[in-house]
Amino acid sequence: MGCAGSSQNKGGEEATKKLRKPRAWKHPQPITMTEIRQLRDEFWDTAPHYGGQKEIWDALRAAADADITLAQAIVDSAGVIVASADMTTCYDERGAKYDLPKYVLSEPTNLIKDS
After folding, report:
1. Which segments show compositional bias classed as Polar residues (predicted)?
2. How many CB atoms lie within 10 A of CB 3?
3. How far apart are CA 25 and CA 6, in angstroms?
C-alpha cells in the first residue's frame, strides 16, 4: 500500500524537466571569447576522465552548444536526467552525476572583445 501523497510518476517528471537558459553570471575578471573557448575546450577534453559515460558527455557537449529546443531534444534522447533546469547538474540513467560549469553553457556578463 502506498502513501496517499506518493506518486509513481515522480521519476518521469524529473527526467522530463524543461531546460532553461542559465542565469546571468560574472567571471572573476573580464574575459575574452577566446579565453572562454579555451576554458570550454579544456573542460570537455578532461570531463570524461572524472567518471560517467563518454556518450553522455558527448550529448551534454552537443546540448550545451545548441539552442534550447535542440538541447532539450538531445538530453531527452540521450536519457539524461536534468536535475537543474540550466543543465549545471545532470545524471545518467545509471545515476552517474555530471556537473557542468556555467562557462560551458553561456557567456559571462563581463565578456570583452578579443583584441
Report:
1. 1-10
2. 6
3. 37
57: which 3 cell numbers? Answer: 558527455
The number of helices, as runs of H, and strands, as runs of E, in the chain is 4, 5
Q: Which amino acid belongs to residue 66?
A: A
For the chain, the straight-line distance linking the first and the last C-alpha, in angstroms and rounded, comes to 66
Q: Name all domains of the chain by residue range, CATH numbers in brackets.
A: 30-103 (1.20.225.20)
Predicted structure pTM score: 0.82
In DSSP terms, 92 is beta-bridged to none
Q: Cβ distance 51 to 43 under 8 Å?
A: no
